[in-house]
């Protein structure tokens, strides 16, 4: 599946032209915040635009040196602190650091990646019944989810579900358009993956806001991709957040946990119990990695609603029932990091309008940067 995505991704630079952020010279406005003005007078945040010949009078300029990749194991800290990647620009490169920034003891930040899916609305209904808030790291269309054998309608067809999650007080964050591993593609492709999703967000979320929180697929980043992320406002210096996780029950691979759905869920719950251990809410905080695309995690549908799944209690419910009596407080990512509500959203800007309307994108996925 990943090979197919990468083959498609290699075609994207051809449709970027000279820059996706417009032109920049004495006769036009400066580049938008975070974008560089190339020697040829075009705005973007790739090495071609920010490196040799960059014009500092019309935008940011920075020599960017790609570095080796960072893996989830390198980013994730112990269970006593949430692992967060932050990006900061120096004169020659963007560096990657890992630090614990969940600051509220007792906070348990459940998060769900790779959706929205046909299961997400049922999960939202359950969360509302329990008054639990979580964080969703959203994709536009993640073909890897075909492994779940559930339908893949995509973000636009599930726009009402994402809007409901936002209105219910859950945090919405970015996870790239198609779950592309950022260390395997060019800066042009990274920009495409982020801005195509931002274009969808500004059309879907109330007020046209765009999230500034991000989790990299597979937990992978390098200096090259971090440079783009920072240029687009996800860095801590822009008030954003690029996060990993510190508790992973491996719910994205149910088969390794047992031969039946019940055995699989039981083993995932044990993963939670083992990772938390004797840790008390007064001592620590957690940020999890879960996926609302797998039936074992998030299938709350009744037979009348079209679910053909075995009659089991999904992982999301089991975990909440496990942690609530123990005194854990369920929080969103902004709360986990000690930020005021709404901190990880920004108004849309011209960079978010580079993609065409949903109908056009449905027939021509490259229309984003024509």
Quick structural overview:
The protein is α/β, with parallel strands linked by helices. 28% of the residues lie in helices and 13% in strands. Helix 6 (187-204) packs parallel to helix 7.
What does it look like?
The chain is α/β, with parallel strands linked by helices. It has a domain at 2-50. 28% of the residues lie in helices and 13% in strands. The chain has 12 helices and 15 strands. The protein has a 4-stranded mixed beta sheet with strand order 4-3-11-10. Strands 8-7-6-13 form a 4-stranded parallel beta sheet. The longest helix is centred in the middle third of the chain and has 18 residues, at 187-204. The chain is globular and about 65 Å long. 51% of the residues are buried. Mean pLDDT is 80; it is low at 1-18 and 63-100.
Which structural class fits the helix and strand makeup?
alpha/beta
User: What radius of gyration results from the CA coordinates?
Assistant: 20 Å
Strand order of the largest sheet: 4-3-11-10
Shape: globular
Number of strands: 15
Weakly predicted, low-confidence segments: 1-18, 63-100
Number of helices, counting only DSSP H or I runs of 4 residues or more = 12
User: What is the mean predicted local confidence, pLDDT?
Assistant: 80
The proportion of residues in beta strands is: 5-15%
Question: Helical content, roughly?
Answer: 25-40%
Give the terminus-to-terminus CA distance: 26 Å
Let me know the largest β-sheet: 4 strands, mixed
